[in-house]
Every structure is written in structure tokens, then in C-alpha cells.
Write the C-alpha cells for this entry.
Amino acid sequence: DVVMTQSPLSLPVTLGQPASISCRSSQSLVHSDGNTYLNWFQQRPGQSPRRLIYKVSNRDSGVPDRFSGSGSGTDFTLKISRVEAEDVGVYYCMQGTHWPPLAFGPGTKVDIK
Amino acid sequence: QVQLVESGGGVVQPGGSLRLSCAASGFIFSTYGMHWVRQAPGKGLEWVAFIRYDGSNKYYADSVKGRFTISRDNSKNTLYLQMNSLRAEDTAVYYCAKASGVLIGGDYWGQGTLVTVSS
């Protein structure tokens, strides 16, 4: 099975400053159909997960444009251009290319300094 | 708007059984695949199972294969997870999620239901 890793696991950020989370997979996530099924989820404290980005860089409806995803192959990044208080929570990357199973990363906890 | 409401969680002894339900509304349930994903207390997310829109294909994580069964009743807009031979390590919040595409995870998630396996 594909193993997903994330760094850092904890990310203290300053309001208004940028933040970046790295996600790496143990195998290339390029699917035979040409797509790369790397997705990002946000889980705010006490809430259910919410998908932010699918297929590397496509923002879900209602997701602020300060969130962006990039990367290819085995290396991916989620960036927040200017962190706001509502961005506090845990962020997970998830691969769907080599499924089953869907595999989540361990999560990166973002909080305010 | 899309709503997913899980129910059926509770405390069960090791070796026991439980059936979770997920009532869906706000979308055409019979045209979407559905996932179950769980989260142990203080831990990360773990995918559990997926069922295609018509129930024709089902997929499971190795950790639950042979013990859990995913099913759906499209006439009732409801998703189920039958959990047998429960173990302490199955203790978690269980979420159902609507799959806009199976490989891109769930685009809408329920609030979750807590299952505690303990003697």
C-alpha cells in the first residue's frame, strides 16, 4: 500500500503570514488515466473533515482562494497565503490513485503562535 | 443542501456487533458512491469502506475486511455499516461521506457517530 507522510506535523503560524505543508507519497500518484489523485482535507477543532482541494490543485466550492495546492509525482504542497484564525485545525493529504485503500497522511496541526 | 446524519453508535463489548446508519438528503443518493471513514480518539483519519452508487461493488480496508459490511438502501436514502467481531481498536468516530468521485474522497461529510468497544 502507498504510505503518505506529511511535514511538519505541527505548524505554529502568525496571523496574516503564509504557511506551507508538505505531503509525500511512497509511490508516484500519477494514475493510468493521466490524473493525479492527491487531495487535501481540513478538520477544524470539534468538526468533521472538509475537502479543500482535489486532484492536486482544484479548490472545492466555497474554499477561499488563499488556499492553493501544487506538486507532482510524489511531492505535494498545500499553501495558505495569509493565515486567518479560522484556518486553525489539522490538515490531511489523501491519495486515491492506488486504491483501495484510500490513504491519508498523518495530519499537520496548524495553530496560531 | 447536502445533509448526512450518522446514527447507531454506542458502547459495545469486544466481540459484539453494531450497525451504523447514515441518512442522506439534499442530493440524489442513488447516483453517488459512499464512503465510511473513521477516526480513533486523538488520531488521524482512516478510510474504512466504499460502496458504489448501486451497491454493485464494495471495498474494504484490510483492518475491517471480513468483519464489517457496507450496504445501502437507495429507496430509503440510507447507508449502513454492519460491524461484527468488534475489537478495542475499532473504537472511533465513524463518518459517512458522499463520494463525488471515488478517488477524490468525500466532498460532504456527516457529523460522525462514536463507537466505543470496551468491556
Summary: Chain A is about 0% helix and 50% strand. Chain A has a mean pLDDT of 97.
